[in-house]
Amino acid sequence: MTDKNLLLELYASLWNNRSYNSFEQMEQSILSELTDQNTHPRLRRSPKTKLQITLQMIRQSKLNAEEQNMMIEYITLLYNQNFNK
User: Fold this and answer.
1) DSSP per-residue codes, 14-36
2) Taking a C-beta distance cutoff of 8 angstroms, is the pair 11, 64 a contact?
3) Percent share of the chain, pLDDT over 70
4) What is the mean pLDDT of residues 30-49?
5) Which helix (H) or strand (E) holds 39?
6) d(Cα 82, Cα 9) in Å, to the nearest integer?
7) pLDDT confidence of residue 2
8) What is the rounded average pLDDT of the residues 49-53?
9) Cα 30 to the chain's mean position, in Å?
10) What are phi and psi of 36, to 5 degrees?
11) Most buried pick, 2, 16, 55, 58, via CB within 10 A?
12) Is the entire prediction scored with pTM above 0.70?
């Protein structure tokens, strides 16, 4: 299994009732979560806060330590590429 496929599978396992057909779709979902797109604009949290919440959720998940680290590294990389300029 490639790293992209594994990340796709791991990310999907974190969310109930969500499935992703492609790696790009998963990336868009992560960025949407980090920008809090599904929340009313007045209630949105900053991307940094959403990153902290997402990382905490991953740490509390049933993924093993290696899987958690893989997800944390990837989501942090996406955050840095998109919000830490």
Assistant:
1) HSTT---SSHHHHHHHHHHHHTT
2) no
3) 96
4) 95
5) none
6) 23
7) 63
8) 97
9) 4
10) 60, 40
11) 58
12) yes
